[in-house]
Amino acid sequence: MIQFKKINHVAFLLVMVLVVFPMEAQEIKPAKQVDGEMPLFQVENPDFKTSPYTGMTKKHWEDAARYLLAGAFSYIDDLDDPMKFPKLPGKSYPHDIGRVPTEKLEGLVRTLFVAAPLLKKEPDLTLNGIKVAEYYQHQLPKLADPESEAFIKPRGNGGPSQNLVEYGALAISLFISPETLWDPLSQEDKDALAASMLSYGDGPTVPSNWKFFNIFVLSFFDAQGYEVNKPLLEEYLQKSLDHYRGQGWYNDNPAYDYYSMWAFQVYGPMWASVYGDTHYPEIAKAFKTNFQDLVYHYPYMFSEDGEMIMWGRSISYRIGSISPFPFTGTLQDDTINFGWLRRISSGTLLQFLQNKNFLLDRIPTLGFYGHFEPAVQVYSARGSVFWMGKAFLGLLVPDDNPFWTATENLGPWDTTFEKGKVYNKFQAASHILITDYPDIGAAEIRAWCHEKKADDWQGFRSSENYNKLSYNSAFPWQADGEDGEISMNYVFKNAKNEWEPWRLYTFKSYENGVYRRDAVLETNDKVTMQLADIPLPNGILRVDRQTSQVTVQMRLGHYALPKLEGKELKQSKKKIGDTEAYIVDNGEYQLALVPLQGWGKTEFVSAEGLNPVSEESKTINLAASFLPQAATNIYATLMLWKKSGETFTEAELMPVNLKNTSTGVEVTLADGSQKIILF
């Protein structure tokens, strides 16, 4: 059995990458330049009978896949051209020529996620004058050819690297469409490719979703009659199942994020269908059971319009978030609302495909909409974004499956949710809270974050990707500013005179609509707070207790609003009893912040270059200096919202009454119900 020391598995990854690809001070040949941008994706001949909200059917999903693949193939003029795209400035790789072979490998095998399902139905597919199947048939043998610029060195005695990831992805596509990708290869090329891929698959991995890359490589070549390491395959299968926590969520060691869905919850059921049902039926059954759990929880994380939340690392994979939904059609469960799941899925596709900033150089940007450097990780290259192509693996689900034939509907947004109310769905095993807000049709999530920046040398598990107090589909997260500009988090002035956010949260409880966490400042464990979030029909009530042992300056921010094209960012104030509401309006939404207790200053905060939607943005911040000997240590705040064009009433701006007690705070809501927060 392979043993791992306790080590950050992504740090381990990059160390191994550098071993496999040593730094070389050589110039990287620029990618081919392609003139002109692609027009926005259009739903041609929409079917509003089957899909009254999006007009999209399976045919339109095929059109969307072809659209994205056409952008990639606009860089291919002959069969020898690599899938190499223009690099964006910033931390994404490659920065040295040693990483270029892996960059090309990513572009090749990740575009195959889009191509393989299309080739299954249309083996003669041609784009930019190139026969797509012929292109991949020509490129795959190059991976094992030492004379080729695309050559991938066998692993040797090295550890896991990005090559393992891409070879695992390739094995998935080989399972999907062997008749167009594998069968046409010569036996010599098959053997060489098998040796190269197995050198990685039959070896060490990273203790996360990465085990599936080994699993798929070993499984594919076993299915093809090659000798493989069955004990290692079985070990990685069991360890992958051990990541399951319940309610559809796998833990990706240590995080909860979309990897639970576009990795574990896609790989497990897919492996079961192509290999596991025959060879390991009990393990296959376990993956399918875990998959079924997500149906009753995960869809609530999407907005009424089907928009996904910007949350977690690798967010540039975007539409990969919907990749499990089509496969729910394989479950024998007549309680599943397939029309709602397809409405979500098509809505997420359109969220990006019809955003004018989504493509640059005909390729999706590294960001959420346009390029957004704060959300980029160092392990991503430009072609990495095609990991989102896993959404199109759903095209493998037959045309007559209920996922495709059911009539689109809004699910609980139409049948259960009522205006003026808020709906929470707590995931006990993972401590995740999903909240739905019918008044604005938004979804929200609170989840794990407990990572020190000092230990997070790549800088994403401790960053804004995870450390916000909550994440909302209507308000994509904004990066922190150096001068204390903060959105949906606290920041504290530390010993280096820097504004430091919360990163180290410890979940305490969820009871009676109150989500409780404790937090400690990484650089000073004497700065601590007890946090309580209460989702309301039109926002969030925060009732937080300062427990710091030292004097500290602190700030708290609401969500942020981007400046939208052709609209103003307006700000206003409204007197509410003994306090004042600060309101920001961007023409789509309004945010209101109302200080209730403890705070000394409220201010509008403008920012540039911090928001993923536009260059200019605005939020509202609170500020205070806490002294341990202060008479009160309760900091209470209302963070509210409405759609633009609607007026905040006084009742909406003050929907609660607070009463401090010797043990905590009594909260009385507008409907007369009470919540007791005991500190």
From TrEMBL:
InterPro entries: DUF2264_N, UCP014753. Pfam families: DUF2264 (PF10022). It comes from the Bacteria. Residues 57-409 form the DUF2264 domain. Signal peptide: none annotated. PANTHER family: LINALOOL DEHYDRATASE_ISOMERASE DOMAIN-CONTAINING PROTEIN (PTHR35339). This is DUF2264 domain-containing protein. It comes from Leeuwenhoekiella polynyae.
